[in-house]
Amino acid sequence: MISFEQPSSNNRVRPTKGYGGLLDSTVWERIRASSNFEEPDRVPIWDYIDNPEVLRHFKRPEDDYDTAMVRVYHGLGIDLCRGYGRSFEKEENGTILSGGTTTHRIAGQTAWKVRYEIESLEELKQYINTAQPVSWDWIKKHWVNDVRVQQQRFAPYTLYVPGHGCGFHDAYGLMGQERFSYFLYDAPNEIRALLEITGESAYRFAKVAAQEQLSPLYFIGDDIAYKNGLFFSLHFLRQTFIPMLRRCIEVLHDGGIKVIYHSDGNLWSIMDDLMDVGIDGLNPLEPLAGMDLSRLKKRYGKRLILVGGIDCSVLLPLGTKDEIWEAVRQAVAVAAPGGGFFIGSSSEITPATPLENVLAFYEACRTLGRYPAPFANHHHNC
Predict the structure, then answer these.
(1) Cα 316 from Cα 171, distance rounded (Å)
(2) What is the pLDDT of residue 375?
C-alpha cells in the first residue's frame, strides 16, 4: 500500500473553542496561514473522496467504513475536507434505494434521486402546509454532536469543515430543477413559501455553528450553475438566492467564521454578487466551465480563497500521470503565490478515477505546492 507518511508531532491545537478534535499544529498553521493570504509550508489540500478503489487501497481489515475513509484522507495528505462519499461498487449499479418519500437508483456508482418528495402542485401545497424548519433543538443536540464526532475522527491531520446550504438548493432538490422551473410560473407564491422554510433551516444551522464556534470555516453548498452558465436568471437569483446566502454569511461572519461557498459550473455572471454578499472562498472552480484560476486570482486577489481547481471530469479519470502533474504545476504557479489557495479536485474524486491517478494527483499536490516559489521548477519520476 502506498501511503503518505504524516509528520510525527505531539503539538496539537484546537482551531476554535468549539471544535471537536485537536489538530496537528503544522496542519492547522498551513490552513490558517493560507486562509489569511499568507504563505505556509505548502499549499493546503482540500477534497472529497467518493471512490471504492481508493477506499480498498487504504482500508485495513479491522476498519469500519468511517475509520477507513479517514485513513484515506490521512494517507493522501488531505488537510481539510467537508466529508466523504458512499462509494458504491460496480456490482450495485441498478440497485434501488428507498427511504421515506424518496427513491434513489444507483447508476455509475452514484445514487440518483428518481422519486422526489414533491412531484405535483398538490404535493407542493401539502408540503408547505405541513413542513417546518429544522428545529433549533435538533440542530443543537444532534447535528452539533455529529459534527464534533467527525472532527474528532479526522483529527489530528485533517480539518473537518461543517456546513449546510443556504436553503436554495434544498428547495429545488425536493422536486428537481425542471419541475421547480415550471412551478416558478405556475405556483410562484408556493415556491416563495418553500424557500422561506428551507432558508430558515439553513440560517439556523449557520447560527448554531457560529454560536458553538464549531470550526474556523463553514461550507455552504448550493449549486446554481452548469458548465455554460446559471440554472436560473440572474434577476431571480438576486431576488431569492442572494438574500438567503447573505443571511447565512452574516451570522457566520459575526461568529468569526469564514465561508467557503460551493457551486459547480460557470459563475462569472454572478461572481461580483457573490463577492458583495461576503463569500470568503469559492469551490470547486471547474476549469472546463471557464472558472480559470489565473483570471480569478487576478480579479479577486486577496479577497477570495480559491478552493479546488483541478479538473475531475476528464483529466483525473482519463489523463496520464504527466498530464496530472502538469495541471497541478500550472495551478500552483498561478494560484499559490501569496496564499489563499486550497488545491483539490474540481468537485470530488469520482468512482471513475483510477487509483494510480489518485495517488499521482496528491503526490503532485504535496510536492509541487511547497513554498517558497518558484513552483514551476519541480520534477518528478513517473
Answers:
(1) 32
(2) 52
* Helices 65-76 and 355-368, axial angle in degrees (round to 10): 50
**Which residue type, as a one-letter code, is found at position 87?**
S
Sequence-ordered strand ranges (E) for the chain: 12-13, 23-24, 80-81, 96-99, 102-107, 110-115, 159-160, 163-164, 217-221, 225-226, 229-230, 258-262, 281-283, 305-310, 341-345
Residue 329 is inside which H or E element, if any?
A: helix 321-335
Give me the CATH code for the 12-89+117-368 domain, please: 3.20.20.210
Q: What is the dihedral of CA 264, 267, 270, 275, to 10 degrees?
A: 80
The pLDDT of residue 382 is above 60 = no
Alpha-carbon distance of 91 to 104, in angstroms, equals: 16
Q: Which of 300, 284, 146, 296 is nearest to 219 (CA)?
A: 284
273: three-class secondary structure by DSSP: helix
- Dump pLDDT digits (tens) for 95-120: 888 777 777 777 877 777 777 899 99
Instruction: Please state the rounded mean pLDDT for residues 298-311.
Output: 97
Cell numbers 468512482 correspond to what residue?
A: 351
Distance CA 161, CA 18 (A): 12
Cell for 85?
462519499
- Listed in sequence order, the residues at least 6 apart from 59 whose beta carbon sits closer than 8 Å to its beta carbon are 68, 71
**What does pTM read for this prediction?**
0.94
